[in-house]
Amino acid sequence: MVDSSTSHGVTNFLTRRHSTGDGNLSNTFILPSYPPSTPGHDCREFNAPEGTYSLAHSIFISSLQPLYTVGTSASLVSIKYKESTTNLQRYEAQPGAMNFRRMFSSSSSSSNGHNIHSTSNNIDSDDEQHVFGTTPSSSSSSCNNNHTSKHHIMPIPEDETSSTTKLSFLSRNHSRQHHSRKPKTSITKTNSSFVQKIITNDQLAKILMSRTSDDTNLFYNCGTSFIWMDASGNPKEPLSRTVFTRACPTSHDVNLLTRAADQLDLIIGFTSGDIIWFDPLCNKYGRINKGGIMNSTSITMIKWLQGYDNLFMASFQDGSIMIFDKDKEDELFHPDPIPNVKDKKLFKISKHPPKIASKCNPVSHWKLSYQSITAFAFSPDCQHVAIVGLDGLLRIVNILHESLNDVYESYYGGLFCVAWSPDGRYIITGGQDDLVTIWAFKEQRIIARCQGHHSWVRGVAFDPWRCDEKVYRFASVGEDAKLILWDFSVSALHKPKTKAGNRNRGTSVSSVNSPPLSSILATIQDKGPVIHPVLSKTEVAFLQPTVIRTIHSDPCVGIYFREDAIVTTDKRGRINIWQRPRQ
Question: Compositional bias of type Low complexity: which residue ranges (predicted)?
Fold first, then answer.
């Protein structure tokens, strides 16, 4: 059943308002105009080899003006977990390098005092309303040890030399048993001109009291607003909407380590470089990088570091990445000067002196480019991060050693999005060349280019519930408003005219003879990062799409996988939730 769009105004459910920006209207963020939607478009289902995906919910508030250049990113978070209590399932949703998951031991989760629920309940296939009813939010970057997944893909074993004790910026004063603090400033009573108002549902207290750990929260951005809704559309109105005066939200993330019935830690990045640490359950917040004191350029992506309730990473439009601690104070920061030259090997680390570093942000600052970093994604074991930018480069950085390992070039133009396969063996990227490209992490080479989009590719993600060691399912969305499903296996690749490699047809995708990771790391430490040149069309295999369907009337920016659904977002602010085929 398709829910009608939430297109009415918001005045019907207001109870608490707070406005501070009226006296500073000259500082109010002015949203640029945007093109009209494609008329007459109404996609309600699409077919795939496994069956028909049907539109279960379409969430859209027509009265909100979008920041069209950024679009909408979404996070779907529930409290209940379907895997065992010894694992913590990680789901990240954002445009571009969308999803990653890591498994933690029970001691990591319990050390913070958070009760991780588990259940073996199955979805009732006869229930029309089962979408988001019992399934947890989940990552598209890992399938390992998930009790509800169809297949098991084990991640690449951690190298003996890669120990968390060697974390260059995490091991100092950043324990995973860090005592979690909560934000202190009430967003309903704040005097800050940064927050214009918060609008809450007049039944919010009653709704929260009646909710269970099965219910799924939906968070998303649109224009100057950050919205909290029930993902199943009950109620259809937002639970809350926070409106900002001087900047627009661009990216956000929910900390799944600390999430509980009485706590949700969100970080929200803005066009001004500001960061809000926000708990919607108590309507309290804290500000980081206030007024852009450490970096005043727009945040392009923001994510919590796995296993930590206080550390997170943010990428910026000036080509830098910064690691922050939500519990530390802001401090004026000037990174070490470097020559303004184009260098693909650029990776400059800057930090505060030790006395300041113990109390102040940033924890670490990486300078990688003079063009915008657009997205990043953590490997399933969280030892590496894949970073893409408008300079057209895919960078692989070892987080443990803060070292740049590999640099790959796009076929043409900038890159917008990146994602890891569930086992950490492959990385996919998308960008201005209208291609999705598959890279082999351990082999350190390009595997294939995927042709099917007719405009820039804005979002990519793996589907962990349709991956095994022989076939990998992933998806992409682009500015052509299309969703494309791809099934990647060696036998599915079309070989170029010039032989691109010596892999035998019919072998497993994961059966690769490659040097151990320890030797690769040793080489990098001795000689620096490996720069991989662009290969021509005749040197690279290509992959044909499995499914192509226009699913939105506006350019798409986000694609996220859940056990029971696919979620897509666009530049206009619409979120579509597609129910998987019934088994």
Answer: 105-123, 134-147
Query: CB under 8 Å to 37, separation ≥6 — which residues?
Result: 553, 554, 572
3-state secondary structure 541-554: EEECCCEEEECCCC
Any idea which residue has 């290969």 for tokens?
Answer: 535
For residue 108, give the nearest of 255, 226, 227 by alpha carbon: 255
Residue 195, H or E segment:
strand 195-200
Q: How far apart, in whole angstroms, are the C-alpha atoms of residue 530 and residue 331? A: 35
CATH of the domain at 385: 2.130.10.10
User: Quick check: is 2 in a domain?
Assistant: no
**Which residues make beta-bridge pairs with 299?**
316
- Let me know: does 532 contact 406? Beta carbons within 8 Å: yes
C-beta of residue 217 within 8 angstroms of C-beta of residue 231: yes
Structural domains counted in the chain: 1
What pLDDT digit, counting tens, does each position of 120-158 carry?
A: 333 233 333 445 443 333 333 333 333 334 444 555 544
- Compute and round to an integer the Cα radius of gyration of the chain: 22
What SS3 state is found at 208?
helix
Asked if residue 496 has pLDDT above 90, the reply is no
| Residues whose CB is less than 8 angstroms from the CB of residue 166 and which lie 6 or more positions away in sequence, other chains included | 400, 401
Total Cβ atoms within 10 A of residue 160: 9
State the distance between the two ends of the chain, measured CA to CA, in whole angstroms.
Answer: 17
Beta bridge pairs of residue 462: 474
Neighbours of 201 (CB within 10 A): 24
What 8-state DSSP symbol labels residue 214?
A: T
The whole-number average pLDDT for the span 98-108 is 31
Residue 155 CB burial class (10 angstroms; 0-12, 13-18, ≥19):
buried
Is position 365 within any domain?
no
Partner residues linked to 449 by β-bridges: 437, 542
Please tell me the distance from the alpha carbon of residue 475 to that of residue 455, in angstroms, as a whole number.
15
> Looking up tokens 């057209």, which residue turns up?
392
Give the pLDDT confidence score for residue 171 in this predicted structure.
Answer: 55
State pLDDT tens for residues 551-563.
Answer: 999 999 999 999 9
**Is 356 part of a structural domain of the chain?**
no
- Structural domain range at position 180: 11-61+69-349+370-579
Q: Is residue 222, in this structure, part of any structural domain at all?
A: yes
User: CB–CB of 237/201 below 8 Å?
Assistant: yes
Round to whole Å and give the CA distance between 104 and 111.
11
Residue 424, C-beta contacts closer than 8 angstroms, at least 6 positions apart: 142, 155, 156, 379, 380, 381, 441
Between 208 and 54, the more confident residue is 54
Q: Which amino acid is at 409?
A: E
